[in-house]
Amino acid sequence: MKKIIAIMSFLTLLLGIILGVSYMRADASQKTIANKLIRFHVIANSDTTEDQALKLKVRDEVLKYIAPKLKEAKNINDSREILKANDEIIKEIAKKVVKENGYTYTINTSLSHENFPVKSYGNVTLPEGNYEAYRIIIGNGEGHNWWCIMFPPLCFIDVTRGQIAYDETEKEMKSVLTEDEYKLVNNQDEDIESNQIRFKYKIVEDIKSIYRKVQKH
Q1: Would you say 178 and 148 are in contact if contact means Cβ atoms under 8 Å apart?
Q2: pLDDT tens digits, residue range 106-153?
Q3: In the chain, N or C terminus with fewer CB closer than 10 Å?
């Protein structure tokens, strides 16, 4: 009996180590991906229909202005400098849209590192974690946000265009990510969360199998 308890304690410890290593690898992958991207978020004042519609109008006008400039960026540093140099102009564009639509909301912008949950954009799903993001916060900023990836410039790809857009997205993402990193964010062919769940269950089943064999001896 003591032998079985000792073996089960060892297997429990082994499970913890395996899951811990798996988590650390995923975290490391998320960090390497995050270091190569700049996200763009427009956060609505609230979730009312009117505030959500205003958010999209702000998005449209800002992208119309900044898109041609960011398309000229050769790397993430170029994109970062372009955003910093045009921050005040972007803020004024957003304020103008808000005022023209009859609102008095304040506009705040920032280029900073923020924590985000798992988010999908077209055939790209970014893991939960800390990312650099350019954010436009309208009013109280308590509504759902619209988001995309500014570098590489996925914001300028129409994700509603099916396979054509997916192909363009893949090309842009692979220009900055390694093959393994792209596999982690590509959700076109597989459900990342389901795969993670299946992986964890596989480990548990393997340990149960070992436990059953131990009991027989």
Answers
A1: no
A2: 999 999 999 999 888 878 888 889 999 999 999 999 999 999 999 998
A3: N
